[in-house]
Amino acid sequence: MIDVCLLGTGGMMPLPNRWLTSLMLRYDGGSILVDCGEGTQIAMKEKGWSPKPIDLLLITHFHADHISGLPGLLLTMGNAERTEPLTIAGPKGLSRVVGALRVVAPELPFDIQCYEFSENEQTLQYGDLRIKCYRVHHNVICYGYSFELDRAGRFSAERAKELDIPLKFWNRLQKGEQIQHEGRLLTPDMVLGPPRKGIKVTYCTDTRPTDLIVKNAMESDLFICEGMYGEEDKLEKAKEHRHMTMYEAAQLAVDAKVSKLWLTHYSPSLVKPEPFMKKVRKIFAESYPGKDGMSEELRFIDE
Amino acid sequence: MIDVCLLGTGGMMPLPNRWLTSLMLRYDGGSILVDCGEGTQIAMKEKGWSPKPIDLLLITHFHADHISGLPGLLLTMGNAERTEPLTIAGPKGLSRVVGALRVVAPELPFDIQCYEFSENEQTLQYGDLRIKCYRVHHNVICYGYSFELDRAGRFSAERAKELDIPLKFWNRLQKGEQIQHEGRLLTPDMVLGPPRKGIKVTYCTDTRPTDLIVKNAMESDLFICEGMYGEEDKLEKAKEHRHMTMYEAAQLAVDAKVSKLWLTHYSPSLVKPEPFMKKVRKIFAESYPGKDGMSEELRFIDE
Questions:
Q1: How far is CA B27 from CA A127, B5, B125, in A?
Q2: What three-state secondary structure class fits B122?
Q3: Over chain B, what is the mean pLDDT?
Q4: Would you state the pLDDT for residue B173?
Q5: Residue A234 pLDDT > 70, yes or no?
Q6: Which among A50, A61, A81, A99 could disulfide-bond with A142, CB atoms 3.0 to 4.6 Å apart, if both were Cys?
Q7: For A104-125, how does the pLDDT look when each residue is reduced to its tens digit (9 = 90+)?
Q8: Which ipTM was obtained for this model?
């Protein structure tokens, strides 16, 4: 299970009742945060999710609305007596930016490791969770993230019995281990059916639509994408500032064959996303306007 | 008239429904902001006060809860198309801290001038407003601020007539000008009574009580002071972290003969200040628990 929460849905500047866009994922006892603008730690507290177990902070890019809440978050994690190291990953220049912002948070009870991407596509591993990091198209270097959890095939007790595999090895084989036993190599594929559908979440904001987004978002269960503008006459503005309209996000959702789309990163000029949803849903029916604190537990299909 | 607003009342970290401590003053068409923690720009928007006319930003000290909202505020002021320069004043090291935080706000349509204090007591002038800046006692260099507006004596038409001063000079003399006329030097004291009571506001937070606070807060109309803890057993903690209890703030109010005290900078552990107010008021009757967005128009007595 992956627990996801869209902590905020605003772009550019935080507003009363609209936190800046940021995503939090809870998986296997730890947490991942994507972006940390001004107020993100308050949004987290409002949701009731703790900043303490955040092991990994992914930054899309270095515009203030995506990172200026970092020093406050780090201090709050420190006040919660976190001592385990924190990894921060993001575009080239990350160490310099984190170092500069820490001028007001110089002393922390935990270490910070910065990891800078050097390629257009890179993969990080967070336990069993695979994180695909891919370059998007904004006016500064910016990355999108896809979170993938594989699911092994179903275990066949019948097949294990047929192959005379002792009961004590079943669990280990089910977990993917290979076992040497009495001159025989026992492998998971001997007792597991074909891989089943896993879980996939994709997050991308501050970008024009690109093929790399479609590729990486392919068949996501949940696609969280910026829809900065709803007014049709804002397309030119979107192009100029390297953002996208809600309709472009919906088209990406279609192209990437995702199950569901949550829009986010609304322009401060956009009071409410709802008036535009009817038209957005004509392009992609399973479109939803993101709301601050909106969350979902993503589970394996028959779990 | 000085319009003051306590934008937030929290210390250490921003909380849902409690912005970080910060004060905004509007005077003569411009604005002054004291401290800018994470979320201060949102608190300002919630109050309906604009960040655009802020000409002067005073920083008490460089702990994140007092300055981490700076990059976001600067960008929002830039987005509001401010082009007039902004002065930021604060303790030694200010330029370095502002420079570092601007890593995420490098391009602005206005200039920033940093002014670093070198003395324990210094005076800034903001139009007619005199700002006394004085060192307080925290675990890093920290300053308190007093805002003073003088008021000239009452103009005496009778006296002006007695002295044969032409009507056309009355207004200029009233405004404090000296005038050379037909071999005679006309001075304001010829037509003005003794100076009348002006307006004084004092703001001090993140400090132990000190004599310099009493001296600078003397006879303030409004004294805004930290009261981080209300529980009596927190006195030791207050001493250790160089903060003060509400009772110590009330005693400062007594010693400085102020008219009114607003408490602020509550510890995140303090849910509500009200339960402690009865005891605080036994020390100083005109004590009030600060609230986010609490404001007052301070006027000359019979204005």
A1: 57, 12, 13
A2: strand
A3: 97
A4: 93
A5: yes
A6: A61
A7: 999 999 999 999 999 999 999 9
A8: 0.92
Q: Domain check: are A166 and A223 in the same one? A: no
Helix locations, B153-234, DSSP H: 157-162, 170-174, 211-217
Size of chain A, expressed as the number of residues it contains: 303
The answer on pLDDT for A303 being more than 80 is no
Residue B303 lies in a domain: no
Residue A97, in any domain of the structure: yes
Nearest CA-CA partner of A36 in A99, A96, A90: A90
Q: Are A70 and A103 in contact (CB under 8 A)?
A: no
Domain coverage including residue A171: 153-194
* Chain A stretch 63-102, residues whose beta carbon is closer than 8 A to a beta carbon of chain B: 63-65, 67-69, 71-72, 75-76, 79, 96-97, 100-101
Do A36 and A185 sit in the same domain of this protein?
no
One domain, residues B146 and B159: no
Same-domain check for residues A99 and A113? yes
Distance CA A244, CA A206 (A): 8
Which pTM does this prediction carry?
0.93
Domain assignment present for residue A303? The answer is no
**Lookup: tokens for B163:** 């002295």
Per-residue model confidence as pLDDT tens digits over A160-177 = 999 999 999 999 999 889
Quick check: A104 and B75 CB within 8 A? no
C-alpha R_g of chain B? 21
Average pLDDT value for residue range B148-175: 93
Residue A74: both structure tokens together: 């780090």
C-alpha B281, offset from chain centre: 23
A183 Cβ contact partners less than 8 Å away, ≥ 6 residues apart: none
Q: How far is CA B37 from CA A38, A103, B13, B236, in A?
A: 9, 14, 9, 26
Question: Which one, of A235, A178, A181, lies nearest residue A209 by Cα?
Answer: A235
Active site residue A55: no
Residue B40 pLDDT greater than 70, yes or no: yes
**Segment 51-70 of chain B within 8 Å of chain A by CB:** 62-65, 67-69
- Counting Cβ atoms within 10 Å, is residue A219 exposed (0-12), middle (13-18) or buried (19+)? middle
Average pLDDT for A1-27:
97
What are B116's strand-pairing partners?
Answer: B90
